[in-house]
Design goal:
Number of helices: 4
Shape: elongated
Number of strands: 6
Strand order of the largest sheet: 1-4-5
Order of helices and strands: HHHHEEEEEE
Mean pLDDT: 83
Number of domains: 3
């Protein structure tokens, strides 16, 4: 009987030891996992969430920085373009004006000659040279006179200032006289020809 009591005591002692061990294991797991809100300790899920949030915040900060840099670069580009546009409009005619200065010099010399000479033929020749130089400079810059005389009236090219009876049937609807010639600059119309049209 004593033996069976001793056996029961040993068994209950083993059971209580096992229970104590199980309780310790449970407590250790609970500390690691922190499944119990009442216990203090680190939560691996929270730690991974914190790391993920920090990573997302870092990416967001990087994207904000890139965005601000792009805005600054675009603003600089816009300012630079506006400045270049203003400079271009201020100096757009510089090349043409410089090339026309030669003609202006010739006109000054011709004007002095007109005051001192009485030779009409020499004056005409001098003026013809000045006008010829002016025309050749403008042509070299892309200016071209429009051929409107006897052409069909075209509202896209001509501006009719008046209509007169046509001298013959073939001239009806055509340009009879050019009052002011039209011009192209590099094949783009820059001035309409003012014309008289036959009706």
């Amino acid at each position: 009987m004593n033996d069976s009591l001793n056996n029961n005591t040993d068994t209950s002692k083993d059971n209580s030891d096992n229970m104590a061990q199980n309780a310790e294991i449970d407590e250790a797991l609970a500390n690691v996992l922190n499944t119990d809100d009442s216990r203090t300790g680190s939560n691996p899920l929270e730690e991974s969430n914190d790391e993920g949030m920090e990573k997302l915040q870092a990416e967001l900060d990087e994207m904000k920085d890139k965005h601000l840099r792009l805005i600054a670069e675009f603003d600089n580009f816009r300012r630079r373009s506006a400045k270049e546009r203003v400079e271009l409009t201020q100096t757009a005619g510089k090349e043409i004006v410089q090339s026309l200065l030669v003609v202006l010099d010739d006109m000054g010399r011709a004007e002095k000659q007109l005051e001192t000479t009485s030779d009409i033929t020499a004056m005409k020749e001098g003026l013809a040279l000045v006008f010829g130089k002016l025309r050749s400079i403008l042509q070299s810059k892309g200016l071209k006179a429009m051929e409107a005389q006897n052409a069909e009236f075209d509202a896209d090219l001509h501006e009719a200032i008046t209509e007169i009876p046509a001298p013959n049937e073939a001239m009806k609807g055509k340009v009879i006289d050019v009052v002011e010639p039209g011009y192209y600059l590099n094949d783009k119309l820059i001035r309409y020809a003012k014309v008289v049209v036959g009706n």
